[in-house]
Each structure stands twice: as C-alpha cells, then as structure tokens.
Amino acid sequence: MPAANTNRTASVQHHRTCILHVPDLLPLARLVAAGCDRHTTTSVCVSATEPLPLHALANVDACVVLLSSCHSDQDAAELNVQLEQLKIPTLFVSCGSERVRVGPWCHYGHTACLACVDSISRCFADADTTRGRACQGLDDADLAGLIENTFTAILARCSPLLDGAVLHHDGADRVEYVLKDPLCPVCSSWSRQPMETLYAQHG
C-alpha cells in the first residue's frame, strides 16, 4: 500500500466519514476505512442501498462512494442526487476491471458533481476509449492506499480534486479538469428556476 503522507495529515482536523459501497466492494471499503481511521477520520462502512440509510449519514462530514462496473449509471446518478440534497461533500470512486476513476470531489454548489463529469464523459466517450491501457497491478490494498491518500489530501486542502480534477488510472495515469456545469440539473440552481425568473435576474 502506498505510504500515507504524514506531513500532509498533520494539519487535518478530525472528520467523520461514511464509506458508501456497493456489496461487491465491501472488502475494499473496509481497507479504505481502516486507512482513513489511522490518520484523519472516524469511518463507517455502509452499503449503498436505495434509499440511502439516513441514520448513518446524520452526523458525517464527508462521504467516499465506491462504485463498481456492475453498478448501473442510473444507480450512481440517484446516489449523486440524494447526496446533493443532503449537501454532504463526497468523493466518488469508480472501480472497473480496466480503469479506475478517482473523482469527482463533489463539494455541491462549488465543484463539478458526478452529473457534470458524466455529461462531459458522454461527449468525449470515443476519444476516452482510445487513451491508456488496461489498469493492471492494482490490488485492493494498492487501490485502498490510493483512495486513502487522495482523500487525506482533499481534507488537507492540497489536492487538485478541489479544483475540479478527476484522476484516471488506466495504464497511463492522467488528470482531467472538469468545470461545474451552470445548467446541471442536479447541482446548479439555474436549472431549477423557471425561465421567467432566470431572465429577470440575468437580463
């Protein structure tokens, strides 16, 4: 497992974190929770059921959502909507057999949410499939260390994900920056206003 950056975590205040996971990622969720507990958080693993278990989210400061390739886009979208309504800052991690995507970090109302990122991904889907090779050599321990270090850096406010970055690990690691969509139906207030109000406010 990659070593955690102790200098980075020294200035991080204590956080309460909920690790939401699909059933097949429970072992990974436990590793992530254990890693975070060593440094900055008190973590609890909760299955990402429908609807969300509100009792487990009542007093958390942040969430890490672990999704797998067998988890449908619709299920992920519904999770994004529910977490936006609760206004819980959330790190989304998508784990596939060939690619791992860490991000977005959804600070709802400030950074791009999952819907913003997925709308961009659909626009450039053809280009995305031509880049990188299969992600190999990342076992659960390595992946948990990667997630742990990324989340710790976010809490310490020294991560590119705070500025809308999404990290792709697909054999050729790369960083993609996604701006918040002002017309996003999930996280933008513009998209929820009647058009008459929008025009009145913005000329």
Number of strands: 7
Quick check: average pLDDT?
A: 76
The backbone outline, from C-alpha atoms, is: globular
Structural class: alpha/beta
User: Major β-sheet, in short?
Assistant: 7 strands, mixed
Order of helices and strands: HEHEHEHEEHHHEEH
Strand arrangement within the widest β-sheet reads 2-1-3-4-5-6-7
* Uncertain parts: 1-12, 124-135
Distance between the termini: 54 Å
The protein's oligomeric status is single chain
The proportion of residues in beta strands is 15-25%
Radius of gyration from the alpha-carbon trace, in angstroms:
17 Å
Number of helices: 8
Query: Which bin fits the share of residues in helices?
Result: 25-40%
What does this structure look like?
By secondary structure, the chain is an alpha/beta fold. Helices cover 36% and strands 21% of the residues. The protein is built from eight helices and seven strands; from the N terminus they run αβαβαβαββαααββα. The chain has helices at 6-9, 26-37, 54-57, 73-86, 114-123, 125-129, 140-155, 195-202, and strands at 15-21, 41-47, 62-68, 90-95, 100-106, 165-169, 174-177. Strands 2-1-3-4-5-6-7 form a seven-stranded mixed sheet, with helices on both faces. Helix 2 (26-37) links the parallel strand 1 and strand 2 (41-47). Helix 2 crosses helix 7. The N and C termini lie far apart (54 Å). 36% of the residues are buried. The model is unreliable at 1-12 and 124-135 (pLDDT under 50).
